[in-house]
Amino acid sequence: MANKFAVVTGASSGIGFDLARVFGENAYDLLINSSGERLESAASDLRKLGFQVITVQADLSTYEGVEQLWREVENTGRPVDAIALNAGFGVGGDFARDTELDKELKMIQLNVTSVVHLAKRVLKQMIERNEGKILITSSLAGTMPAPFTAVYGATKAFSLSFSKSLRNELKDTKIAVTALQPGPTNTDFFHRAQFEDTKIGSEGKYTNDPREVAEQGFEALMKNEDHIYVASLKTKIQGELGRFVPDSVKAEQHRKMSQPVDKEKKAA
């Protein structure tokens, strides 16, 4: 069993699927997770490429779902060499007037709570071996106020802070922790978030390709980088320059891209 072992959550499509593929192409056996029915189809596509793939269909927005996944990881009898904590979704809309509380609470459970839960489990194992790699999917949106994705942006700000904090705590070990910060990416994220009637949903999503996001994220993890803005030059520039832009300005910029077009017209 010469290959290393990687776990990828949210791997049935989008960035997660391409992360699994990139790990596989770099001699990792895979355990992939999603809550949806597309998981087996994704696994079939990965196996056709010659990768060893285990699937665990579990809803990580629940405590039991995370525990189910971790039990299956332990049942392999293999140490986790790398884990990509990628599962998540977004909710778009006016927080006070349009969005549904139950969806936002579920989003917090998946985007935040499951990341903490799984990190707690896997780090205990990695600490014992003094070895391992953790890639946490944050977002460019996690670096700014995010009107019309207010809760989503806050979950990604948490992921970014959490990743950087773990990295500092673990600096005396051989465990790498990297934050993946994609800009708008061409996946079904915008459809699921009911976010298609926005400038970012109709235009901005073509800025980044999920395959390039995954490749650059994998490379950054292997190099033990703190974080990486991915994947286009535009996203990288936005990320770097954003450090010098006031939050009030970034909030207005985000609003212009994320406000539903019909609301923008009414406001005008």
Short synopsis of the structure:
By secondary structure, the protein is an alpha/beta fold. Helix content is 50%, strand content 15%.
Can you give a write-up of this model?
- This protein is of the alpha/beta class and 268 residues long.
- It has one domain (4-267): NAD(P)-binding Rossmann-like Domain (Rossmann fold).
- It has eleven helices and seven strands.
- The protein has helices at residues 14-25, 38-48, 63-75, 101-129, 150-169, 189-192, 199-202, 210-222, 233-241, 247-258, 261-267; strands at residues 4-9, 28-34, 53-57, 82-85, 132-137, 175-182, 227-230.
- The protein has a seven-stranded parallel beta sheet with strand order 3-2-1-4-5-6-7, with helices on both faces.
- Strand 1 (4-9), helix 1 (14-25) and strand 2 form a beta-alpha-beta unit.
- The longest helix is centred in the middle third of the chain and has 29 residues, at 101-129.
- It is globular and about 55 Å long.
- The chain starts with a strand and ends with a helix.
